[in-house]
Design goal:
β1, α2 and β2 form a beta-alpha-beta unit. The chain is an alpha/beta fold. It is elongated, with a radius of gyration of 21 Å. Helices cover 40% and strands 16% of the residues.
Length: 177
Amino acid sequence: MNRTLFLLPLMMLVILAGFFGWSLLSGRDPASIGSVMVGRAAPRLSAPSLREGEPALTEALLRTGKPVLVNFFASWCAPCLAEHPLFTRLKEREGATIIGIAWKDKPEATRAWLARLGDPFAKAGYDTDGKLALDWGLSGVPETYLIDGNGIVRLHFRGPITERDLSVILPLLRGGS
């Protein structure tokens, strides 16, 4: 009886270790969880403009009849730096409309970052307190949403976009809504 009680915690530890080991080695991608946003109307868009003298960003930017990318980024974010050239390329080669939202970043730091790297955004705003990001379901930066011309979220990418993601993004950008 005493030996059984002694082995019970050890057996539980082995079972838990096996479960965690399987979870780590199963090849599942945690980013493939999906998004509740896809297929729904884009959340409200209300942010002050990052560019002095330009009007604030509004929901009208998401309902122009043309697809638009909305990218949440920050100047202090290393993955944002990695994806930045792809946004520049999308703007220059594809004529993509990209809206940038600087998340929890100082506007001066963001302006300097964009001046140094180039500014691929048709419109840019900032969300210093993170309230806008809550409406969009942001879990961190970078995150990018493809919104069709009717204001419906068609794609959501957590983390930096990559060359592989462009194969999914480009047909939707070119095909309209």
